[in-house]
């Protein structure tokens, strides 16, 4: 789901007055560097806290909000991401900030059908074998429908993971899937483990993006791929105007009506504007050590997929 | 300071797979830390900057120092390794993924290339063309040294085209697929380029020094011969492709005759005209004699 679409990440899910209080106390505390929080300014620690609270309260309504805000288009974006990844059976995927499991489920579906095609190809070759050899291949135990592919969903928020696990059970996904609680800035995994690292609509909510990128580099195998799906900057001025209109007028209203949470969705829209544009993010990814970094704009820049390789 | 630290860190980090080209020459001045970085690519937080004469890091975007292999070279290595898997998987991303795995990379590295396998095919064609050029170069050297006879043009062309087509034999089953991919609109510029430069090379080594329209005619003719022979080869099932070579022989002979035929047509034309004139004279004199009677 539009994890990034969930503005709850940043804003309080509480009253607006509380926000003003916090704002005042923030100045008094001066604890840590000042960061942006939508169009507000808070400290690093505060930001993390608020984002956590936001997602905690929105977890159950996350999917619904995503569908209503993007009119279902977020599904297409995630499908495109999966096609770009084109994972082969046996791939080990780490989906960070993947709370409710959208990318993970798509990955499993994709790999399953790729595996079926692979097995069909093998059977075609088998037509020249002797009966002995054919019977031996059937005895090779399970056919391994996923071909040893695995996806690890990592999220910092327990509530989001809970919703994800429930969804998996409901939809019948069990094999090749695991759920880990972890912070993108400090992943609980060893070096050189994963083939692909994805972060869909999550990197905007990470407080220290550079750390997250460095961690991504660390846990990827040599040759591994980094993929980031995130809201980005629209280039065409006309579309930009319409987009702004929609974002600032419609989305917070939807947030209030559907999730009972105006502020969170106000934050969402603000944080999208604050996030670095395509080229800047590309430079940050290159700084972390990735090569062949490139991005693809979807819907003229409303969303962008950045890709880099650890070579 | 930050800028200073990161570039070498990145060059070394980037060397996880990109290896030093001049590995054999152990620079005595290079500190042990450098060696350590080479052998432990996962060590992503170097404690110190490497000492000794290090080539300067020029910038981002894959421009490593001279000692390190560039992204392009790595891509070439992956594609070369992938060729081994083509008979089994075809010219696809799967073959590239398998190739990447043999180099110790994750299969996800295949994402660097198009999913239709275009780069793999173009890489292969380019490799074959290079091999052909080397072969022709060697032959030419032998002739220059007097160790071999200079072949007549038709023999030369036949041998060159045969040598080039023989390189397709290990991949012959999947080659039709490759041909169709090469004809995709986005590949046509590159594939046409490779084809024309190959044909040009062959004619160069055949000793073509024409500067008139013949230059175009010769290349067009040879391109036609090459393409048709390639297609014949696709569905040839004779032992060692005998039929194909015979076809090739006939086409080259035709091409040679065509050159002669041009002259012949001219002289034939003259002969025909003379014949017609003679016939006309005979008929008119026959008429006249009848009229006289």
TrEMBL record, chain A:
Statement: the UniProt record of this protein carries the keyword Transferase: yes
InterPro entries assigned to the protein according to its UniProt record, in alphabetical order: SAM-dependent_MTases_sf (IPR029063), UbiE/COQ5_MeTrFase (IPR004033), UbiE/COQ5_MeTrFase_CS (IPR023576)
GO terms under biological process: methylation
PROSITE patterns named among the record's database cross-references: SAM_MT_UBIE, UBIE_2
Transmembrane parts of this sequence: none
Superkingdom of source: Eukaryota
UniProt keyword list: Methyltransferase, S-adenosyl-L-methionine, Transferase, Ubiquinone biosynthesis
CDD domains: AdoMet_MTases
An example molecular function term from Gene Ontology annotations: 2-methoxy-6-polyprenyl-1,4-benzoquinol methyltransferase activity
Key word S-adenosyl-L-methionine present: yes
Role according to the record: Methyltransferase required for the conversion of 2-decaprenyl-6-methoxy-1,4-benzoquinol (DDMQH2) to 2-decaprenyl-3-methyl-6-methoxy-1,4-benzoquinol (DMQH2).
SUBUNIT field: Component of a multi-subunit COQ enzyme complex, composed of at least COQ3, COQ4, COQ5, COQ6, COQ7 and COQ9. Interacts with PYURF; the interaction is direct, stabilizes COQ5 protein and associates PYURF with COQ enzyme complex.
Protein name (Swiss-Prot/TrEMBL): COQ5 protein
Source species: Herpetotheres cachinnans (Laughing falcon)
Phylogenetic lineage: Eukaryota, Metazoa, Chordata, Craniata, Vertebrata
Gene: Coq5
From TrEMBL, chain B:
Keywords for the protein's UniProt record, in alphabetical order: Lipid-binding, Mitochondrion, Transit peptide, Ubiquinone biosynthesis
Pathway(s) annotated for this protein in UniProt: Cofactor biosynthesis; ubiquinone biosynthesis
Start and end residues of each COQ9 C-terminal domain: 188-259
GO cellular component: mitochondrial inner membrane
Function: Membrane-associated protein that warps the membrane surface to access and bind aromatic isoprenes with high specificity, including ubiquinone (CoQ) isoprene intermediates and presents them directly to Coq7, therefore facilitating the Coq7-mediated hydroxylase step. Participates in the biosynthesis of coenzyme Q, also named ubiquinone, an essential lipid-soluble electron transporter for aerobic cellular respiration.
Sequence similarity: Belongs to the COQ9 family.
Description of how the protein assembles with itself and partners: Homodimer. Heterodimer; two heterodimers of COQ7:COQ9 come together on the same side of the lipid pseudo-bilayer and form a curved tetramer with a hydrophobic surface suitable for membrane interaction. These two tetramers assemble into a soluble octamer with a pseudo-bilayer of lipids captured within. Interacts with COQ7; this interaction allows ubiquinone (CoQ) isoprene intermediates presentation to COQ7 and facilitates the COQ7-mediated hydroxylase step.
Protein name stated in the entry: Ubiquinone biosynthesis protein
Lineage: Eukaryota, Metazoa, Chordata, Craniata, Vertebrata
């Amino acid at each position: 789901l539009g994890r990034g679409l969930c503005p709850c990440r940043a804003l309080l899910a509480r009253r607006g007055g509380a926000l003003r209080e916090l704002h005042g106390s923030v100045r008094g505390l001066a604890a840590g560097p000042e960061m942006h929080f939508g169009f507000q300014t808070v400290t690093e620690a505060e930001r993390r806290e608020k984002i956590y609270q936001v997602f905690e309260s929105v977890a159950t309504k996350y999917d619904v909000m995503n569908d209503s805000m993007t009119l279902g288009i977020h599904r297409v974006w995630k499908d495109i991401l999966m096609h770009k990844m084109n994972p082969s059976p046996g791939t080990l995927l780490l989906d960070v900030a993947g709370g409710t499991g959208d990318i993970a489920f798509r990955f499993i579906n994709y790999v399953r059908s790729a595996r079926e095609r692979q097995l069909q190809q093998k059977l075609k070759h088998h037509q020249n074998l002797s009966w002995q050899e054919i019977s031996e291949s059937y005895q090779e135990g399970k056919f391994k429908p996923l071909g040893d592919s695995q996806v690890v969903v990592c999220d910092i928020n327990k509530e989001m993971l809970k919703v994800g696990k429930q969804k998996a059970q409901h939809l019948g996904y069990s094999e090749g899937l695991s759920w880990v609680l972890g912070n993108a800035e400090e992943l609980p995994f060893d070096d050189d483990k994963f083939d692909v690292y994805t972060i869909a609509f999550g990197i905007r909510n990470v407080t220290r993006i550079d750390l997250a990128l460095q961690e991504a580099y660390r846990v990827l195998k040599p040759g591994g791929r980094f993929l980031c799906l995130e809201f980005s900057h629209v280039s065409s001025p006309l579309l930009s105007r319409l987009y702004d209109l929609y974002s600032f007028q419609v989305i917070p209203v939807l947030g209030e009506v559907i999730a009972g949470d105006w502020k969170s969705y106000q934050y969402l829209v603000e944080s999208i504007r604050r996030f670095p544009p395509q080229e800047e993010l590309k430079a940050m990814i290159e700084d972390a050590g990735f090569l062949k970094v490139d991005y693809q704009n979807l819907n003229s820049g409303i969303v962008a997929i950045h890709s880099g390789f650890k070579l | 300071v930050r800028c200073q630290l990161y570039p070498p860190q990145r060059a070394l980090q980037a060397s996880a797979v990109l290896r030093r080209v001049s590995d054999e020459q152990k620079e005595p001045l290079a500190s042990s830390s450098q060696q350590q970085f080479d052998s432990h690519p996962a060590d992503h937080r170097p404690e110190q900057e490497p000492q000794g004469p290090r080539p300067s890091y020029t910038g981002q975007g894959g421009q490593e120092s001279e000692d390190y292999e560039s992204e392009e070279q790595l891509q070439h290595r992956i594609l070369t390794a992938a060729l081994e898997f083509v008979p089994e998987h075809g010219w696809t991303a799967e073959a590239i993924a398998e190739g990447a795995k043999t180099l110790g990379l994750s299969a996800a590295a295949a994402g660097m290339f198009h999913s239709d396998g275009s780069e793999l095919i173009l890489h292969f064609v380019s490799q074959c063309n290079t091999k052909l050029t080397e072969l022709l170069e060697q032959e030419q050297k032998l002739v220059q040294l007097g160790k071999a006879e200079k072949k007549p043009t038709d023999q030369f062309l036949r041998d060159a085209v045969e040598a080039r087509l023989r390189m397709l034999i290990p991949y012959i089953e999947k080659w039709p697929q490759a041909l169709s991919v090469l004809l995709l609109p986005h590949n046509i510029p590159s594939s046409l380029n490779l084809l024309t430069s190959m044909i040009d090379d062959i004619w160069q080594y055949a000793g073509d020094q024409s500067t008139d329209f013949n230059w175009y005619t010769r290349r067009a003719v040879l391109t036609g011969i090459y393409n048709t022979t390639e297609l014949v080869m696709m569905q040839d099932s004779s032992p060692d492709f005998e039929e194909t070579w015979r076809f090739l022989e006939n086409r080259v002979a035709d091409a040679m005759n065509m050159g002669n035929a041009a002259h012949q047509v001219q002289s034939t034309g003259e002969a025909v005209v003379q014949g017609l004139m003679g016939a006309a004279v005979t008929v008119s004199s026959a008429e006249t004699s009848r009229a006289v009677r």
